[in-house]
């Protein structure tokens, strides 16, 4: 009798044995870790542990949604919806991904990290639902996009990025002309410029903070540029973001 009941339970779509449950959880950790490792190597906000936790949590909620309420299947007026918790996971990941997006001036960063978290959550949901082959294939494709396509994008776009420079200098009329001439000489496009008073106006030589938003075509020449600006007369400090 017990064997018959076990056979019926095994054939039920609402039943999963403990070993398969553990396998799916560990697979979610592995797949999320692979994506997280690449994000960690690239020094992004959502790195190794974050991606693992997102994938594992999504997988666990999918398992709970499908198998956690199996004992109520035969109850009167009870209808199970395996996709209900999964839909809430997608909404929750949207809020988490929004926290990785930063807007600074005219530059927006973190979109790829937010998208990777969204995809990792989908991979976790797929593993939890037993959709193992697509989950593994999606992980491979995600790594391909993040690693290979990133190199292609840098190669064909020239690696142009927007940087924010802060220049602390003595208040001098010739400062703006000197900095502008230096940027033009290096072929750098200046997107935005602002000048702010810095410190006490009672100083013998009042200082100003020059804020520059520039598009820099060659990343390996950023440090030499900072050194040249630092070498201008009256400049005390230079920083870049």
Automatic annotation (TrEMBL):
Record domain MgtC/SapB/SrpB/YhiD N-terminal: where: 25-154
Keywords: Cell membrane, Membrane, Transmembrane, Transmembrane helix
Protein name: MgtC/SapB family protein
Membrane topology: Multi-pass membrane protein
Chief place where the protein resides: membrane
GO cellular component: plasma membrane
Top-level taxon of the source organism: Bacteria
InterPro entries: MgtC/SapB/SrpB/YhiD_fam, MgtC_SapB_SrpB_YhiD_N
PANTHER family: MAGNESIUM TRANSPORTER YHID-RELATED, PROTEIN MGTC
TM segment ranges: 21-38, 50-73, 85-103, 131-150
Family: Belongs to the MgtC/SapB family.
Cell compartments where the protein resides: Cell membrane
Pfam families associated with the record: MgtC
């Amino acid at each position: 009798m017990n064997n018959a009941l076990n056979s019926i339970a095994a054939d039920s779509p609402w039943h999963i044995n403990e070993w398969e449950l553990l396998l799916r959880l560990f697979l979610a950790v592995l797949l999320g870790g692979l994506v997280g490792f690449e994000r960690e190597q690239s020094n992004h906000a959502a790195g190794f542990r974050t991606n693992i936790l997102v994938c594992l949590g999504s997988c666990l909620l999918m398992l709970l949604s499908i198998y956690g309420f199996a004992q109520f299947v035969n109850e009167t007026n009870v209808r199970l919806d395996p996709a209900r918790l999964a839909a809430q996971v997608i909404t929750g990941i949207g809020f988490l991904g929004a926290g990785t997006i930063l807007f600074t001036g005219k530059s927006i960063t973190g979109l790829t990290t937010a998208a990777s978290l969204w995809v990792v959550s989908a991979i976790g949901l797929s593993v939890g639902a037993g959709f193992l082959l697509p989950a593994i294939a999606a992980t491979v494709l995600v790594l391909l996009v993040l690693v290979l396509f990133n190199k292609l994008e840098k190669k064909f776009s020239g690696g142009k990025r927007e940087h924010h420079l802060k220049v602390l200098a003595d208040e001098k009329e010739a400062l703006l002309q000197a900095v502008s001439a230096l940027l033009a000489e290096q072929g750098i496009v200046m997107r935005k410029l602002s000048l702010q008073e810095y410190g006490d106006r009672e100083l013998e030589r009042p200082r100003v903070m020059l804020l520059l938003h520039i598009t820099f075509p060659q990343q390996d020449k950023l440090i030499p540029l900072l050194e040249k600006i630092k070498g201008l007369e009256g400049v005390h400090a230079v920083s870049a973001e």
